[in-house]
# Entry
Amino acid sequence: MAEAVKQAEKPAPERPVVVSAVGLTKVFRDFWNRPKAKAVNDIDFEVREGEVVGLLGPNGSGKSTTVKMLLGLLYPTGGRLTVFGKSPRDVENKRLIGYLPEETYLYKYLTAFETLDFFASLFGLSKEERIRRCDQLLNMVGLAHARNRPVGEFSKGMARRIGLAQAMINDPAFLILDEPTSGLDPLGCREVKDLIKLLKKRGKTVIVTSHLLSDVEEVCDRIIVLYGGRIRANGGMEDLLTIRTNDTITVPRLPEDAVERIRQIVRESVPEGEMSVSHPHMSLEDFFVDIVNAAKKESLETYGSRSGGAIADYLTGEKEHDAKAVLDSLAREEETPAQTLARKMESDAAKAAEDAAKKRQDELFARLQTSAPAPEEEKSRLEQREIEAKMSEANRKLKDLLTNPTDGKD
Amino acid sequence: MTAFFAIVKLTCRSAVRSHIFRLLLLLLLLSIFLLPFTLLGDGTPKGEVQIFLQYCLGFAGFILCLSSVWLACSEVSSDVESAQIHMIAVKPVRRFVVLLGKYTGVVLIHLALLLIAAAAVYGFLMFRLASTDFSEQDRLLLNEQVLTARALYRPVRPDFNAMAQQELERRVAAAKEHGQDVFHLQDEQARRQAFLDIRKELIATYGLVTEGETMLWQFEGLPKDLTDDDVLFLRYTVYVNRYYVKDQNSVRGHWIFAANYTRPDDQGGETVVSDLMALPEEDILTAAQNEMPVPIRPSFFVYDGKAEVGFLNKDTKTSELNFEEGRGPFLLIREAGFFSNYCRAILTLAVGILSVTLLASAVAACMSLPIAIFFSAAYMLVGALANYIVTSIPDAVDYQSEYTGTFGYQFGDLMLNLIVPLQDFFVTGHLANGELVSFPFIGMLFAKDFVLRMLPVFLLGAWIYTRRELALASKRG
# Structure
């Protein structure tokens, strides 16, 4: 089985380990303690600080069981599992964790504000801090208008939003999101993904499980694919999904002659049949989000949850305050000076890589500008232009005829 | 502590916003304001007030006990089943704190309801007393026998074992004297059987007074500082013949108050006092609780906390009168006012609610909702029937030689040690009879039932709760 597991990339070793599973096994037993099902079968993985990891797999693959073991809701039958170096059942450790379950199990008789206030109280936050965070989170997830409505009356999407808000109430260092976009409209999905990206930017560790692979693809650095309780693939998104046998160049719209010149350059290395040139497609989600954003500008309202507002202050990290500072210090307490240096070096390396990529792009354009078109191609291009000019003239005449029919009679 | 109070608050909110709870609350209000109109007393103002106190407060307490069991089971168990506990268990709060918070929430809301119910019953009673025009005698009866708090003293129970042993020896000696063969009694088992038979006979005939005979009861532990201003009350129930007959008759007899003691005199010696005072022969109603103020000054027959009371059967129509053990005669002496006693009765009910909720929380912490409710209800039912077990055990001693009897005895003994008899907390009968609910009694209930029985059960339930794989028990997700 080890051969089958695709170990394409190891996470940056210098970052502290947040989750470590070694030989993790979970066997469900029946009433008579006889083994009934092996939900998780001897899996090893690590999640390091700042990573966004996607846990993928079909139904029954063991991902929910793994998540529940991470949260101390189920206990491993075998192997070793640690979160922040401690047992998942360690109560104090849970200050650093945020969890959005697959279904949001809320107390239906509580209002949206009471719900968030209750969960904030479990973290021992002061009343002022609770009110501040609850209001900001409600605004962030677009439920400020439903502040005093019982959550039992909420639609699934609204319940997901309030669930997401409660998961963020403690500004967690490690977030487990079980199907975070399930039940959300595309706008909500976009907001959740943006939020995950923001969390990643702030150095938070996130585990996401989802059936919507496009969501995972967009936000995750690394994916772990489970099937039958075993890990089938574990690696960086870039490495696992890049088709190394093909290349794609995406540039702003080029003039036809430039396209022809590129074709010519490519033809030097690749046969005509293996090449295609087309316009990139916008994803349906991006298209939908654009439409809704346009509608919002026209003040069109909806009865359900509204698109979220600004990210809560305490989550952006821009406005420091005591509670956040404590949480951050807890989350980063294991970082040594060497790790800080490594983090800086990594940042410098990323900048260098970005500069190199820009340089390569400039070189490519310079080459495109200097490449002269072949005589046959130039001829073909001129013929095409003539055809286009004739069609344009014909269209103009037809248009004139349709808009001014009397002219024809004259 | 913020987390603990948040859970307490959540539990209270859950209760207040639950439909079943609202229904129970409605039932509670009905029990206070409608029940009195459906009850018929014995036609006297005293009986009416007694019935009101006993049933209204008792029914309210019963509703609250049921409600606390239901709510505790629902709050703890359904939270696990519906997976709502997942949202709490992943937060930095210990599961024991979660369970304790839920228990406290259920208890607080029920104590608040108990206070409201108690205030409503008291207010209603006071209103009726103030608005009804009672005769002077009725008001006196009410004040002396109902709206008061009197300590109840029971007669000393005879040592039936010693009496049986003595009787056995007497019979053996008599048989030997008459030249009868008592060889078979040398066998240990046969001798034991004979002893048990005699003991049983003595218990069965205890309290029987044949015509023309007198029976005396000894009382101990009465207050030593009684003055002649203190009024003692005598309470008793008498039956005709040894078998329990509910038919009421009128029989005749005298109550006798005996002074039989030795006291030091002024010269440093001892004076033997031996005197008695009989009340006039009177008609006595059988199979009914009789109560009367003792028209003799206490200093005549009470000395050093001891007293002797007797009854002379003068009824010619019946062969024997029966004073069943546990039904008197009792002596009662006023110790506190009615309001104080009322508060003590409410406090006792509160201890009951605390104990019952503790049990329900513990059971729900490790079982599913229907099983937890069934278990708690079964426990309460067995507890309510425990009185019968209590009374059957002394008789079961007679059957110790038989396997079934031994088993029954052991089982009953075990049950008594494990199960809390629920009716112990319902002292509304005491309240209605003007009997004092003493603080030592409440303390004993708290220590015996709450601390020694329910608390270990709760701690066991909490221990299981903290170790449960919560995700396995949920029916969702």
